[in-house]
Amino acid sequence: MKALQRYDDYLICSHTNPDADSIGAMLAMYGYLKQLGKHAEMAVTDPVPDLPLPNIGQMGPVSARKYDHVIVLDCEPKRTGAIHPIIEKAIVTFNVDHHKDNPGTCTYNYIDTEQAATCMILYRLFKNAGADFNLELAQPLYAGIVGDTGGFRHANTTTEVFLAAADLTAQGAVPHLTAEAIFATKPLQLIRFLGYALTRIETRHDNRLVWLALSDQDFKRFNVDPSHCDQFIDYVRMVAGSEIVILFREIAPDVVRIGFRSRGLNIHQLAIKFGGGGHLMAAGAQVDSPLADTVEQVVAAASKLLEGDQP
Ligand SMILES: [Mn+2]
User: Which class is 2-183 in CATH?
Assistant: First the structure.
């Protein structure tokens, strides 16, 4: 973190398809650099979810200029999409992340796969650095922690998480507004589509394996953006007895985004098998192949994992 003092101009970025943790981490880093008197820009490649966080309006598409110092948050540089070439040209790079498969290729790497959220790692780094936990830090860090713990429900919800959340709340983060924005506010069209989607859930092995596959046609018919449906997996996961849960979204013709959740089984290895990654019990992948073929292959591999074989 001391190295951040050395330079004056930064680009802050994160993975494509931003979530509360990646956005929270970017905003908190932006707020911290502002405290240090540095210039920073935040670049995103996809639409940003509407969260009530300070400076969120400052996020924008990456500009054509060159950046010598880049901070990559909540992913490895390769997962930043269109921003990746800029990172490759940078002189000094920083990486803060909690994903298992991050190879740590930046100049400075703060990777802690034990942490529930990248915002947890930043919380600790900023604490140690003596940062002022004003609203520009407290609100986004809190939002990131809430997002990546599923609202303090996932297995990664530790004592440290609660202590950090309590501290950030004391500094002004507002729990109910954060929860409302992340989990409880959806456009009507999306709620209607959810109703349709849930009728299409499929199961195998006495509901131990549960999946939902949504096609490009489905999204078009309901006029819904597939990137707004990532939380559907939480509903699929509610099926009693489910151990492996999979959400397939055909985000473009023959491009399928796969989300994996488990209750104990190592689905990270399943995600790796299909070119993805993530965490032990929450992972993802994206493949370029037709939806039906993808479902067949992934469900077969998941079945093997349930049966105790290598997927
Ligand atoms: Mn994260």
Answer: alpha beta
